[in-house]
């Protein structure tokens, strides 16, 4: 007689994902290391490296915040959720690659090099966002995997954010043909907005939980 396999709890999924994202952030820092001693003027001239790093850091930071919030709402992770989560991590693990391309292209590359690097960065953003969107929609349609009915609404809201990220990536590619710097800067206010919104949303959830306990 076949034995049904129960969905897994999320502790291992969360631990593995946190480890992967931590390694990605570590790899990003390595690109900041100078190849040789630099004067203050040379350090200032290296601003494209810092801008590329900041954009990549906010990308991974947004992924981590959203991932932590999503996992906190999942009761069980079935094989489809596990595979979609791996796909998100695949995209996140690629971020150091376009970051290095952007840094070099903005410092020493030509116009075509900069456009190519920005296109690769946008494609990596898509690789992250598509499985995120798939996981949001899948979990919203399978509430048995979530902890409460309210979590279904959260998954639907996050699905809209994932879809918006895909749109932003497409717009950034178009802008890249006009201005490389403007195309890269487009990501910064978006990621900052996502991070602030996530922090505020978490704080509001905590306040509601405290009020419910006191009632």
Automatic annotation (TrEMBL):
Transmembrane segments: 12-30, 50-67, 79-95, 115-140, 161-178
Family annotation (InterPro entries): TMEM175-like
Gene Ontology CC entries for this record: membrane
Membrane topology annotation: Multi-pass membrane protein
PANTHER family named in the record: ENDOSOMAL/LYSOSOMAL POTASSIUM CHANNEL TMEM175, ENDOSOMAL_LYSOSOMAL PROTON CHANNEL TMEM175
Name the record gives this protein: DUF1211 domain-containing protein
Catalytic activity: K(+)(in) = K(+)(out)
Entry-linked Pfam families: TMEM175 (PF06736)
Primary residence: membrane
Compartment(s) where it occurs, according to its Swiss-Prot or TrEMBL record: Membrane
This protein's UniProt keywords: Ion channel, Ion transport, Membrane, Potassium, Potassium channel, Potassium transport, Transmembrane, Transmembrane helix, Transport
Entry GO MF terms: potassium channel activity; proton channel activity
Recorded family membership: Belongs to the TMEM175 family.
């Amino acid at each position: 007689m076949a034995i049904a396999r129960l969905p897994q709890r999320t502790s291992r999924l969360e631990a593995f994902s946190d480890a992967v994202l931590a390694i990605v952030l570590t790899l990003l820092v390595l690109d900041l290391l100078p190849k040789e001693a630099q004067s203050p003027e040379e350090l200032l001239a290296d601003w494209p490296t810092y801008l590329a790093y900041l954009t990549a850091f906010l990308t991974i930071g947004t992924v981590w915040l959203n991932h932590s919030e999503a996992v906190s709402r999942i009761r069980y992770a079935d094989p489809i959720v596990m595979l979609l989560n791996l796909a998100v991590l695949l995209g996140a693990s690629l971020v150091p690659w376009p970051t290095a391309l952007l840094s070099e292209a903005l410092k020493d590359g030509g116009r075509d090099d900069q456009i190519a690097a920005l296109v690769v960065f946008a494609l990596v953003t898509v690789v992250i966002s598509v499985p995120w969107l798939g996981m949001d929609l899948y979990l919203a349609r399978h509430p048995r995997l979530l902890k409460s009915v309210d979590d279904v609404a959260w998954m639907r809201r996050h699905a809209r954010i994932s879809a918006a990220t895909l749109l932003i990536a497409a717009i950034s590619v178009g802008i890249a043909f006009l201005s490389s710097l403007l195309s890269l800067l487009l990501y910064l206010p978006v990621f900052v907005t996502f991070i602030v919104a996530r922090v505020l949303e978490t704080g509001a959830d905590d306040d509601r939980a405290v009020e419910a306990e006191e009632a």
